[in-house]
């Protein structure tokens, strides 16, 4: 696929903004497989319309030769008390997101935030639990 077609794919609707056409042209001329990622906090079951709209755009990127990653921010979900802060529910809904994107966007890579911390899971889990019980005021008092 030539660079003009790649640019047409990644800039067609629903894309609303490109930093500059020149940068995009330069990227495709100098990088055979650029990278793209989208991060999603798992705040509830995904709306089908969101999957379709996001999925179509990811598929445009993949067709243009871009390596696409969907980052599922499960720890952000937990920190923000989404899904009631229930880790089992967060994991279940995260798997639902991963399965939906893999089905709708063949070739996409799925990365969960928790995968990034697996080697230090106990440390990270304790740090997050501790942090959730602090406020900025408590931190100021501790520093005085």
Question: How would you briefly describe this protein structure?
Answer:
The chain is an alpha/beta fold and 144 residues long.
Q: How would you portray this structure in words?
A:
The chain has 144 residues and is α/β, with parallel strands linked by helices. It has one domain: HUPs (Rossmann fold), CATH 3.40.50.620. It is built from eight helices and three strands; from the N terminus they run H-H-E-H-E-H-H-E-H-H-H. It has helices at 3-11, 21-30, 48-63, 74-79, 87-104, 113-116, 121-132, 136-143; strands at 35-41, 67-73, 109-112. It starts with a helix and ends with a helix. The model has no long low-confidence stretch (mean pLDDT 88).
SSE topology sketch:
Layout: H1 3-11, H2 21-30, E1 35-41, H3 48-63, E2 67-73, H4 74-79, H5 87-104, E3 109-112, H6 113-116, H7 121-132, H8 136-143
Parallel strand pairs: 1-2, 2-3
């Amino acid at each position: 696929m030539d660079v003009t077609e790649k640019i047409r794919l990644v800039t067609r609707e629903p894309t609303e903004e490109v930093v500059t056409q020149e940068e995009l042209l330069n990227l495709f001329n100098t990088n055979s497989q650029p990278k793209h990622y989208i991060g999603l906090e798992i705040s509830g079951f995904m709306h089908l319309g969101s999957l379709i709209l996001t999925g179509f755009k990811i598929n445009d990127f993949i067709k243009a030769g871009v390596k696409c990653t969907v980052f599922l921010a499960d720890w952000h979900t937990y920190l923000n008390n989404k899904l009631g802060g229930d880790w089992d529910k967060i994991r279940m809904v995260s798997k639902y997101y991963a399965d939906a994107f893999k089905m709708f966007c063949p070739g996409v890579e799925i990365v969960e935030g928790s995968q990034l911390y697996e080697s230090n899971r106990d440390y990270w889990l304790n740090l997050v639990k501790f942090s959730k019980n602090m406020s900025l005021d408590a931190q100021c008092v501790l520093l005085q």
